[in-house]
Amino acid sequence: MIDVAIIGAGMAGLACARRLTQGGLCPVLFDKGRGIGGRIATRRTDTMQFDHGAQYVTAKGDGFAGLLRDLAATGAVAPWVDGPDTAPLVGIPGMSSLTKAMAGGLDIRQTAQITALRPVAGGWNIQVGDTRHRAARVVLTIPAPQVAGVLGADHPLAVAVAGVRYAPGLTLMAAVDAPAPFSQRNMPQDDLAWIAQDNSKPGRAPGLPTTWVAHASAAFSARHLERDAPGIAALMVPLLCDRLGIAPDRVAHAAAHRWRYAHVTAALGQPFLRSADGRLYLGGDWCLGPRAEAAWNSGTALADDLLAHLP
C-alpha cells in the first residue's frame, strides 16, 4: 500500500512529496513524461540546450526563498545577472536542474500514464498500463482541465475547478550564427512576447551560435495552437529574425514546442482542494496563479493539510 500517490511530478507535486517525506510518509510520484518538472524544463540536442518553459524563478515569500537558498548552496541554481530586474534565479546548467535537485531521494515513476483511478475501500486503485497500485490517498497535481478526464465530469472536485482558465503558449528554440543584440526582451503586446538569449544565463556555453528561446503571445499561440511543431517553427523563425535584425540564413537550428496549459489566467483562489473523506487532494499553480512559487505554495500547503489530518 502506497501512503500517498502523487500524480504529476511538476513543481507542485515535488513540493508536496518533499514535505510529506519530511513528515514521515513515503509518497510515490507518477508522471507520464520522460522527465520531471513540468514547465520548468530544458530541451537538449547533441550540442545545444534550451530552457523552453519557465525562463527563471523568483521568490516573494520566505518559504520558497528558503528553498532557493538551499538549492543555490548546492550549485543547482544561480542568479541570471543579465536577466530581468527581478533578481531572477536559473537552474544550473539548465532550468530542469532545479527540479532535479528537488527530486533527490524521492520515489518517482516516469513514463507512467495513469489509465484508471478508482476509489476502493480504504483508498484507491491506480492503473498504470498493465500494473495496478493501491494507495491510501491520492494527490492530483495535473492541469485543472484534465481533472474531469481522470475523475469524471460530475465529480465534486472536477466541478469545483471548472472555472480555472489557462492561456496556451508556443515556444521557438533557435540557434543563430550571429552576435546577440540583447540578452532578453519582454514585449507583452508583440507576437513574440518574450525573447531570451539562453546562453547568456550562467552555466551555459558562451559564444556562437547564440541560442534563443522565444515565447509567443497568448493570442498568437491560440491562433496557431493546433499546427504541428515544424509549422509552428516556420511561423516563428521570421518573427525572431526580424526582432534580432538578422537574415534567415543565419538560423542554424530551429524547433518548436506547444504548451497547451502555459499560463494560468483565472486561478482557483485557494491553495488546494480536498475531498470530504480526505483521501483525495488537488493542487497546482492553477490554485494560486501563474508562477513557480504558486505551484510550490500549493503543493506545500496541501502536504501540510494532509499531514494534519492523518489518523
CATH superfamily of the largest domain: FAD/NAD(P)-binding domain
Rg calc? 20 Å
**CATH architecture level-2 label of the largest domain:** 3-Layer(bba) Sandwich
Please state the overall shape, judged from the principal axes of the Cα atoms. Answer: globular
Number of helices: 8
CATH class of the largest domain: Alpha Beta
Structural class: alpha+beta
- Beta content comes to 25-35%
Using DSSP, what is the number of strands?
17
Helix content: 25-40%
CATH topology of the largest domain: FAD/NAD(P)-binding domain
Tally of discrete structural domains: 2
Return the string of H and E elements.
Answer: EHEEEHEEHEEEEHHEEEEHHEEEH
- Low-confidence segments, given as residue ranges, are none
Give the SSE layout.
Elements: E1 2-7, H1 11-22, E2 28-30, E3 43-44, E4 49-50, H2 62-73, E5 77-79, E6 89-91, H3 96-102, E7 107-109, E8 114-120, E9 123-128, E10 131-140, H4 147-151, H5 156-160, E11 165-176, E12 184-186, E13 192-197, E14 210-216, H6 218-224, H7 229-244, E15 251-266, E16 272-274, E17 280-283, H8 292-308
Parallel strand pairs: 1-2, 1-10, 2-7, 10-17
Antiparallel strand pairs: 3-4, 5-6, 8-9, 9-10, 11-14, 11-15, 12-13, 13-14, 16-17
Helix pairs in contact: 1-8
